[in-house]
Design brief:
Layout (H helix, E strand, L loop, with lengths): L1 E4 L5 H12 L3 E6 L2 H9 L3 E4 L5 H9 L3 E4 L6 H11 L5 E5 L7 E2 L19 H15 L6 E7 L1 E3 L7 H11 L3 E3 L5 E6 H14 L4 E5 L2 E4 H12 L5 E3 L1 H8 L1 H6 L2 E2 L5 H7 L8 H7 L1 H6 L3 H6 L5
Parallel strand pairs: 1-2, 1-4, 2-3, 4-5, 5-7, 7-11, 8-10, 9-13
Antiparallel strand pairs: 6-14, 10-12
Helix pairs in contact: 1-7, 3-4, 6-8, 8-12
Length: about 300
C-alpha cells in the first residue's frame, strides 16, 4: 500500500512511517521547505512538496497514494477539512490522530474511577470540545462512503522523548525539584512509541470505515511519573505543588492537563484489530530505559543551570 504520512519527521510521525516501511508499505511524506524535504529523504521516505493546509498540494499528494495518515493536526480544522475533501469519493483511507485528552476530567491531581470507551455521545470539557468535534466530523464522513478512522493515543513515550515528559524533565532540571499536583493520584493512559506505531499500521490496513479506537497499554499516576523523574535526575523525592506552582513551572495548559484524569478502555482495538502492546511500561522505560540513557547523564546541567533542549 502507498501511504502518505503527515509530519513524518516528527516524534510520532517518524515512528509510524518507519513501522509502515517495515510492514512492506511505500511511505511518502509531505514537507514545505527544501530543508524539510531533504530531512524526509534522509529518513528514507519519498518526499512530496506541499502543506496540509494547502488544498491543491494535498489533492496532488493524496492522488498518488492509497491512504493518508495525519499525525500532527488534531486541532487543525482547516487541515482536517482539506484532507477529508481530498479523499472524498475515492477508495482511499484517511486515518486521523486525536488523543485520549478528549476525555480530560479536571481533578486538581485527585483520582477518578471514570473510564471512557469510544463513546460518540460523550460531552467533553470546553478546552477539548473542538478536537472532539473534529473527531466526530471525520467519523461521520464514513456514512457518505469515505473510509475514515480516528485513533486516540494516550501519553506516548519511548526513545527518551514524548510530548509531555520532556516538559516535566526540563522543569525538574531547571528548578532542581520534580513536582506533581495535589495528591498526584490522577491517572493518564500511556503507550510505548513502537506499540502505538504498530496500532497505526493495523488501522490503515484493516480498520473498518468509521472506526475509532483508544490506544493505551497502561496508566500511571502523575505522582509515580514525578517520582520517576526525580530518580532519573538524581533529585530529592518529588513534592506536591499547588496549581499556581505547576503553572509557573510548566505553563497553564500542561499544568491543567497533567493534573487531570483521562482514563480509557482500550479493549476495542485489541479485540477488533488484534493489537498487542509489547513495549516496556512507562515507569520502567523512564527509570531504567531510554530516559535514563538520554536524560540521566545530564547531572552537570543541574549544577550549571544549563537546561538541555
Amino acid at each position: 500500500m502507498k501511504v502518505l504520512v503527515t509530519a513524518a519527521t516528527g516524534y510520532l510521525g517518524r515512528a509510524v512511517a518507519q513501522r509502515l516501511q517495515s510492514a512492506g508499505h511505500h511511505v511518502s511524506a509531505m514537507a514545505r521547505s527544501e530543508v524539510s524535504l531533504r530531512a524526509v529523504a534522509a529518513a528514507g521516505f519519498r518526499p512530496v512538496r506541499g502543506d496540509i493546509t494547502d488544498p491543491l498540494s494535498v489533492r496532488a499528494a493524496v492522488a498518488e497514494v492509497d491512504a493518508v495518515i495525519e499525525t500532527a493536526a488534531a486541532d487543525n480544522e482547516s487541515a482536517t477539512e482539506i484532507l477529508l475533501e481530498a479523499v472524498a469519493g475515492t477508495a482511499k483511507r484517511y486515518v486521523r490522530t486525536s488523543g485520549t485528552s478528549v476525555f480530560t476530567e479536571l481533578s486538581g491531581g485527585e483520582s477518578s474511577d471514570t473510564v471512557h470507551a469510544e463513546d460518540p455521545a460523550f460531552e467533553p470539557i470546553p478546552p477539548v470540545q473542538h478536537r472532539f468535534s473534529l473527531d466526530r466530523r471525520v467519523v461521520a464522513a464514513a456514512a457518505s462512503g469515505t473510509h475514515t478512522v480516528v485513533l486516540r493515543p494516550g501519553m506516548i513515550y519511548g526513545g527518551g522523548g514524548s510530548e509531555q515528559l520532556p516538559v516535566l524533565l526540563r522543569a525538574a532540571m531547571r528548578d532542581r525539584v520534580s513536582r506533581y499536583m495535589g495528591s498526584g493520584l490522577n491517572r493518564y493512559p500511556n503507550v510505548f512509541l513502537d506499540d502505538v506505531a504498530q496500532a497505526y499500521v493495523l488501522a490503515v490496513e484493516s480498520a473498518p470505515a468509521g472506526g475509532e479506537y483508544n490506544i493505551a497499554a497502561d496508566e500511571a499516576t502523575m505522582r509515580e511519573i514525578a517520582e520517576g523523574i526525580a530518580q532519573v535526575l538524581g533529585l530529592e523525592p518529588a513534592v506536591s505543588a499547588t496549581m499556581e506552582e505547576m503553572i509557573e513551572a510548566i505553563g497553564l495548559l500542561y499544568a491543567l492537563g497533567l493534573s487531570s484524569n483521562a482514563r480509557v478502555d482500550a479493549s476495542k482495538i485489541r479485540a477488533e484489530l488484534g493489537w498487542t502492546p509489547q513495549g516496556p511500561s512507562l515507569l520502567d522505560d523512564l527509570v531504567h530505559g531510554s530516559y535514563q540513557k538520554v536524560w540521566g547523564h545530564r547531572e552537570v546541567s543541574l549544577q550549571t543551570g544549563d537546561v538541555p533542549r
